[in-house]
Amino acid sequence: MSASEAHGPHRRSGLRTAVDKDTGVAVLTLDRPERLNAIDLEMAGELSAVWREFRFDDTVRAVVLTGAGERAFCTGLDRRAEVPQPGSPYMVDDPLIAIGPKANDLWKPVVVAVGGMACGGAFYLIGEAEFVVADETATFFDPHTTYGMVSAFESIYLAQRMPFGEVARMALMGTAERVSARRAYEVGLVSEVTAPGEALAAAVRCASVIASYPAEAVQGTVRACWAAQEASRAQALAHAGNLVALGNLPPERQAELFTARRPDFRTR
Fold it and tell me: Which residues cross the membrane (predicted)?
């Protein structure tokens, strides 16, 4: 669905939204392709705001989340973002903690369409969606350990979708290895793989079908699916901030490692 086919396209500084009133499907696009759709602090606030807007918009019955451009769905937190932290490991301010739909109490179905890279903080969004459609260009990886950072929140979100060994391997291998769309499908992270450039259309088709069903039944089903894993997820997330605070290198040392990163990687 393009903006011309939808009613009421709306731009924010880092997001683009278009709601098709006929189908009930909203397409939400991360719109910073020049930064590989990395999330700065303003965009993080916009994401939280738009999920909350969708809660009160009864014309929106399903959402498709995607990224602008061909290179990346999202590469996580923008490294230029300055996030001051309290001087205690028991108090951590995570700028991405509220960027997902479930963190904002939205229980309408969300389908993610991925093309290109999805890494790091992108898993906050993928981890709170109902399912993921990826095209053959998609790759998934978690760079945290390479740059001296703890993969806590990301690993917890991924653990809701993938076998333990696959989560641990992705988190520990850092930038040395990327998971292909096909492998992501095999381990359950992705529910459908399409030809290059076709993930958005496939995701919209799924969302249109879901949006055509009675909203109460759909939203109740979404809530039931999440209730099945909510307790373990909440317990794990409660520890994530402390692990990050205790295990992360100082920002200046992280920057040194980022600058010295090696360009080569293996795709499996």
Answer: none
Strands 177-180, 192-194: parallel, antiparallel or unpaired by DSSP?
A: unpaired
How far apart CA 25 and CA 12 sit, in angstroms, is 19
Contact yes or no for 134/193 (Cβ under 8 A): yes
For position 150, which CATH number holds? 3.90.226.10
Backbone angles phi, psi at 144, to 5 degrees: -55, -55
Q: Is 222 within a domain?
A: yes
By residue range, what is the domain housing residue 159? Answer: 7-197+210-267
Question: 62 and 207 in contact (C-beta within 8 Å)?
Answer: yes
State how far the Cα of 107 lies from the Cα of 73, in Å rounded to an integer. 22
Query: Domain for residue 203, yes or no?
Result: no
Output 261 or 118, whichever has higher pLDDT.
Answer: 118
pLDDT digits (tens, 9 = 90+) for 184-217: 999 999 999 999 999 999 999 999 999 999 999 9
Sheet holding 72-74, edge to edge: 72-74, 117-119, 139-141, 177-180, 266-267
pTM, whole model, 2 decimals? 0.88
DSSP secondary structure string, 67-136?
Answer: ESSSSEEE-SB-TT------SSTT----TTTT-STGGGT--S-EEEEE-SEEETTHHHHHTTSSEEEEET
> Is 64 inside a domain boundary?
yes
Q: Give pLDDT tens digits for 154-177.
A: 999 999 999 999 999 999 999 999
- Within-domain flag for 205: no
Is residue 4 very low, low, confident or very high in pLDDT (cuts 50, 70, 90)? very low
The number of domains in the chain is 1
> How does the average pLDDT of the chain come out, rounded?
91
